[in-house]
Amino acid sequence: MLIVVLVVEDDPMYAKIYEKKFADSGFEVKVATDGEKGLTMALEEHPDIILLDLVMPRMDGMSMMKNLRQDSWGKSVPVIILTNLDANDKILQDVIATQPAYYMMKVNSTPEDIIEKAKQILKLPVK
Amino acid sequence: MVDKTTIPQDYSLFYKSLFDNLLDGLAYCQMIFDTQGHPVDFIYIQVNKNFEELTGLKNAEGKKATEIIPGINKSNQELLEICGRVSLTGRSERFEIYTKPLSRWFLVSAYSPKKGFFVAFFQNITDRKLMEKNLEDARIAARNVLEDLQAEREALASANAKDKAILENIGEGVLAIDSERKVLFLNKAGEDLLGWKEENLVGTVINSLPLEDTEGRPVELKNRPTHISMTEGKNVIADDYLFVRNDKTKFAIGINVMPIKINEKTVGAITVFRDITREKEVDHAKDEFMSIASHELRAPLGIIKSFISMILEGDYGEVNPKLSRPLQDIFVSTERIIHLVNDMLNASRIEAGRMLFKLSEFPLGTLIGKIVLDFAQLAKDGGNTIEVKNPSDGGDEITIQADQDKVREILNNLISNSLKFTDHGTITIYTKKAGEFIFVFVADTGIGISSRDQQKIFGKFQQAGSMERGKPQGTGLGLYICKSLVEKMGGRVWLENSSIGGGSVFAFSLPQAGTAAAKKARLAIEPASDVAKP
Fold it and tell me: How far is A39 from chain B (nearest CA, A)?
């Protein structure tokens, strides 16, 4: 059974990168382009892990995270926050309070780093 | 009343005895006038017994006044005028006069028995005059004292009025409470801000006024600034609350409470407050700008970096060996520009005062261990060794108070610098306990820094150059950021020593957890921390 990753990302370039990287690594990838769609897809499809951007139109990552954590399934699903906001940003500090599995700065990570982190969280063998 | 029948028949004897025994002095004189008719002198025709005693003049009879009282015509012109007038008009006069040549005061009654002559009855009133003078002096002194008292009272009243005027007209709200936390005073600005009149607030317990947190929840008593200030007797600053006016409108209130202590006992408090809505808006705008800048500047760089790294990983198929080198170069350049953007955003944040510090207490040794491990490969690539020297004082096990991410950033910066300027050498990291602080040293065996460059390396956009290596790669912001971060966390950063060819030792200090230095740093970063976390 394929491991499902939900990528919630409004920037099509980043979405394309994560989609390819995770698909190439054997994941089934679903993409949502804003927090609203992301929340719906997450609650309907129950992915194994979510990659979540923060700055997005309609519903931002922070709001999606808050809503997700209200749900009985959503409260424990591992979420990796991927953002270009740094730790000095109040938003990021607020998001950390919602207990994501991890947060990474896009600009300071490579797709390889993200895959490794996701596998580590899902307790999958890292190559 | 004298019975006329008892008056003796020999009148002249009777009057002579009266004349002689009179307690007053008596002199019968003849006026002397000059050719213009001005009184210039008089002759004592007859004086009684007491005359001598009262005036001190002997054998006056038959002599001119100017003869026995030299200078009287100069000093007592007035006396001559009066006596002259009396002797001519026949109208009696009564007057007090001071005769300077005799240094005596006299009360004189003069009348004229016949034209050109006068009789003067007089008393020596020098003692009375002296008494009167003393009395007058005392009266003046008393009046002066009273006037002084009055002046003092007025000065005090004016000072009070001045203080009151200052308090009234000060731009910030000022509110005073007594030991029972009841309002004593509220100035005009305070009235305008709070929407309360002083007279309606005096006597009210301060903690009954509505204060809300940013989520709109009432602030609990134990978190109220005045409560903390009064119970703990310390200055409390809070800038995270909203005040709710009578008309239910709210404003962001900046509060500074100072306890008033008399003999170590808190007897009240002064609260100075102001509307910080505008400042909050500006802060918010700054944050928003920083967020947008961070996001928008980094997003495309992250995309470039991701694509190149995937290409290099072979995710898009095997890389043509001829392209491998230029792709590596693009990757390195991308990393450089990312580093630059990160540094510039950090420097902007520092300057805008929007750097966020999350202080915690953690053992420094563990963090150093992790970071050194991260650098192991990079060090090896440059032919360098990186090592941690365990201190003998156990300093690495001691818990410090700092923002862990920031300490990581500082160490990353210092170690990267060392690696950048060291070729086939060693980077050593070690710690040392120093009072309330822990010192961290990053020592290298690199090219060193000239004494001229040592002066400026902690400034913004400053880099030490070197002849052999040319201009180093970097932003020149690293040490500036390190300095700002360390200082904000209560420590300092310095160049321990360095010489050309002899390597450099950079050092920084951070407060040990639980020390006064740590507390001071925490208060500087989170002034409202006492309020938020009682």
Answer: 22
